[in-house]
Structure formats: structure tokens, C-alpha cells
């Protein structure tokens, strides 16, 4: 489930779909919700459905379906439950809505005799943030912060400094860590401000987010770089793994002046695995 | 970016659109729908329509590289589609022809400055094919509105039919008259039943229609667009004249109506260039009253049967006496 | 499935196609395909359309497809959308 960059692709745009699979985003999110007008919901559903079964998979593929209380949610799930997508991104989640949506998805998977897909919760409302403790008791596979809708719901004014969403960010990261799932930060919406993006992404990383949403392809490489691992970090990780091979018979050993026990070893392995997946390590 | 319909009844919006079009050399003429492309809240483009004719497409210069014509055109075309039009026309200066052709609008006819393109179903080719005939011999044509069919029309048709082997009488389909197309067509057929070489045909929307020749119906000679008239003449020459092997087109002399007279003059110039002669038939009168359909309609309103007996054949009279003036 | 009213789907953006579906009560399947790559790929576009028509069990339809470089999946999606809108 891990990715650095999560790029939204409007679900009704054939051109963007075709170019999307050559982009470097770790996760492509095909959007059936906000990027699609009401009179084209059916059109987008078909396009995404055909695309995910046809396009070669370079990145992970998620689909953001329509909200539970729209006329489209069930049709979206029915169409995509047996497709090769990696996860559903469920909008406007709180504990109750996630539970209901998950129940329908689970029932549909059962009905069609397929495995259920992981479901990532989009936290974009006051209730969403407030009910995080209950939400993580459910079968949620990731937490995704949506600050634009959240700030509207909270009557906040959205700023580039993002002080106003500090609490929401912390809560999302906290609950993701407790549950042991990924957490993804909200997109930076001014696509022409690359400095602003840098500042915002660094902040998100500092807060502990695993990755960040992108709303334009040109944001992807910067996000990938910031949420990836630096050369030093990778060198350290590889060093730990090499040392572990030499000390295969002991549970704990010393590396560069620090103690390395199993949790640290696992983290190093995880880093190297991801780095390999992201093309940061070439063998 | 997004597209929104403009309410043209709002004077301020109407003026804003008018002003927006000025630098492009475009004028807001007959329009029943106008759509604006916005970037944030700024106007960056527009497209209009009148029935199924799409026109007045303009994109601000700084946005022209962004291929914004496509979404605008798509939007206006689909508005027409929602209104039930399965086919749309575009009038555009020749400089834009390639742009619209790349969006699958096909050229039907063009004059020196303007071209007429269409997209949809049925196509010009399909419609002209439905008019095809195997008839041989000299074929003539006359186009009548016949609102209603009078001795004047009968005279013109008798005159024309006697000078050709076969005569096609086209009745204008456009519903812009007191008498419906069905009625007009019926009265024409009844009034020419005695002529064995006459075929009565509907005009289709490619002949004097609100779509392809809207200014004709405005009855304001200053506003008749010369290009509309030219393209209508070209449509006749390339379509109907070709499908039905028409070598002569007859016109009834028109002393009063300037719009019709201007149109006839243009036909008189263009049709011969495409192998079709133009013959102008002088009008007849009855008891010094010029037989015009207008006179007949006025007479019908007044129930002046004595007058009407002199102006229309018995078939038309039978209709008038058995129907109320609406 | 019976096509009972006109419907459209898609756009003429790059890599997309515009599909128009009209009812045609007994004239069978009438296709008009317009594409700049008609010579090279016209038959493949037609094949894809016919596969969808068969899947939806359509016997009578007048379908026009205007192509701007659409790949297979786009053609399928747009045809399916237009058909479902035409019911």
C-alpha cells in the first residue's frame, strides 16, 4: 500500500488516462467523484472500468468512488469490485459512513465471488476527524486527509501555511500509526507555486505522513523526492542489512554506534524494499 | 475552467457578450443560446447558437493555444442535441474551416468569404441521395412557399411546366407561415393535379430554411445576409440541381418584397455559373388586383369570398371556406 | 437491448472519441466511423464496436464514431455509455 505520491486522474478524461500510465506517480487515483460532473458519472465509470482492465500496470491503481449517499456509489462499486484495482478511496468518511460503505463493498465482493479490495478512508469532515478512534477499529487500510472539504466543513480559511489543519494532520497520522496503516497528506492546490509545494510537503513529512496527494503531474517528482529516502538513509539501511547477514546468529548487534534490534532491522528491510520498488536502488 | 450558459435577457450580459465578440469581427445576431467559457471568473471564450446553427465562437488570444474550441463546441453542440437537433450547422469565415473540419464538421458549400459545415444525421449527401431521380429530359424547378396556393402560383407553375419536360415544385418546409407546411403542400398538390409533368417535393432544411438561411425570415432587407443567400443558391446548385438534373430554375417576378428580390438576384448570378439557367416569370393580375398570397390571407380574414374566388383555385377555396381564420 | 432514443458519449479531445447512437428500428447495424487513421485502424475500430454491440445484444442501431486517436478501452467505454443512455 505504500507510496510517496498519489496522483488524482479525472475519471472522464481519456487523454489523461492514456498519459497517466507513463507518469512516475506511485499511486494513480482514478477519480469518479469531484473531478466528474453529474451528467458524466456514467461515462467516467465506464472509462475507468475499461482503463483499469486494459492499461499496463506501472503504478498502483486506486479509484475514488462517489459518496455513500449519492446515486452513484453502489454502481461504482458494482462495476469495479472485480477489476484489478488495488484499493477503493472512500470519500467523506467518518466511522459510521465507512462502516456502511465497507459493508456494501464486502457484500458485493462476496456476491461476485471475488476478494474484497482494501478501502482507504478520505478524512475531509469534522466528524471524520472526530471519529478517527472509532474508525480505526474498522477494516480501514489507510487514512487520506482532504483539507479542502475539511476546511469548508470546519469553517476554516485555508492558507498555504496550513496552521489551521495542524490538528487534523496530527490526528490522522496518530491514528494511522496506532492502527499500523498508511497516512497520506492533502494535496497542495496551487499548481503553479512549486516553492509553496516544497514547504507544504516538507511539513507533511515532518508530521509523519507516508506520502502526499498530487493534483497535477508536475507535482509528482518533487513529492517523490521528498517522501522517498535520501542516499544517506538508503546507505544506512543497506549497511544494516549487510551487517545483519554477518551477524545472522545474534538478535542484536551494533551498527554505526547504535543498537540494531529486530524492529530496526525490519525497518531497514522495509526501506530497502520500497526503495527498490520506487526505482531508487539499481542492482 | 468551466462553461456556463448566459441569460441573454439580462441586458448587461447581452452587452458584455456583444463587446466580447467585437475584436473578433463577430456580431451578435440571431441567437437563442449563448455559452461562456470561464477561467476562474474571467471570460475567456464563448460560443452561440440559433436553433441548430452554431456560431460566434471566439477564444481570447492568450488562451488560443490551449485547444479550448473543442470543449466549447462540444458543449454548444450538446445543448442543441438536448433540444432534439441531431444535426448541427456551422457558419464560419473560411479562415476557420480547417479548425472545424478537424472536429468532424464537414464542408457542404462555401462562397468567397464564408463556409457552411455540418455534423450529424442525416448528412447532406444522404438527403440529396433521397432526392435522386432517374428522370431524363429537361428538368426545371420552382420554389414556392404558397401561403396559401393561389392562381398566381398556379400560373407560374403552369408556365414553367409547359417549358420543360419535367417540373419539380419545391414547397418550403420551414414553418414560418400562417398555413402549416402540411396544408400548403396539400393545396399545392391539389392545385397542380392537372399537370402530368409536375412533381411536388418538400424543400428539406437545405433550401430557404431557418437553419441555413435565417435572415430570409426576418423580412428586413437590410439584415439579409448576402452570404446566407449565396450559400443557399450554392446548396441548390450543388445538391438539388445535381440530384434531380435540374437545368432551369424559375422565379416568379417579385415587385414588392425586397428580401425575395435580393435573393433572386443572387440566384440569377450564381446558378448559371453552375449550369442552371434562371428564368423570371412575370406576374399576372386579376381585375387589376395583383395576386399575392398576402391579399388572399387578408381576404380570408374578412371572409371576402367574392374576392377570393378570383384569386385562388377551387381546391384552395374549398379549404378556406371550410376552415376558420386562426 | 433495444436502442430507443438518440444518445451521445465521449469528447473530441485527444485520445478520445465521440459516439452518437440513434434508433433504427429495422435496418440492422449501421456504422459510420470517421478517423484520421481510418485506413490503418478503421477495421479494428469497427471490430471493437461490433464486440460491444454483440455483448449488449443490439440488433438495430445507427452508430457514428468520430475518432481522435482513441485506444480500444476508450472506444469500448464510450460505446457502452452511449448505448446505455439510449435505452
Summarize the structure.
The complex is a heterotrimer of chains A (283), B (326) and C (87). Chain A is α/β, with parallel strands linked by helices and 283 residues long.
- Approximate strand percentage of chain C: 25-35%
Structural class of chain C: alpha+beta
Q: What is CATH's topology name of the largest domain in chain B? A: Rossmann fold
What is the CATH third-level topology name of chain C? Answer: Ribosomal Protein S5, domain 2
Order of helices and strands of chain B: EHEEEHEHEEHEHEHEHEHEEEHHH
Largest sheet of chain B: 7 strands, mixed
Shape of chain C: globular
Topology diagram in text:
The complex is a heterotrimer of chains A (about 280), B (about 325) and C (about 90).
Chain A: E1 5-10, H1 14-20, E2 27-31, H2 41-54, E3 60-64, H3 73-80, E4 87-90, H4 95-112, E5 119-123, H5 126-130, H6 132-135, E6 142-145, H7 147-153, H8 166-179, E7 182-185, H9 194-207, E8 211-214, H10 220-227, H11 231-246, E9 253-255, E10 258-260, H12 262-277
Parallel strand pairs in A: 1-2, 1-8, 2-3, 3-4, 4-5, 5-6, 6-7, 7-8
Antiparallel strand pairs in A: 9-10
Helix pairs in contact in A: 9-10, 11-12
Chain B: E1 2-6, H1 11-21, E2 33-39, E3 42-50, E4 53-59, H2 69-82, E5 87-93, H3 97-101, E6 106-110, E7 114-120, H4 124-130, E8 139-144, H5 151-161, E9 166-171, H6 181-191, E10 198-202, H7 226-243, E11 246-252, H8 258-273, E12 277-281, E13 285-286, E14 289-290, H9 293-302, H10 305-311, H11 314-322
Parallel strand pairs in B: 4-5, 8-9, 8-11, 9-10, 11-12
Antiparallel strand pairs in B: 1-2, 2-3, 3-4, 5-7, 6-7, 13-14
Chain C: E1 7-10, E2 17-22, E3 29-34, H1 38-55, E4 61-67, H2 72-85
Parallel strand pairs in C: 3-4
Antiparallel strand pairs in C: 1-2, 2-4
Helix pairs in contact in C: 1-2
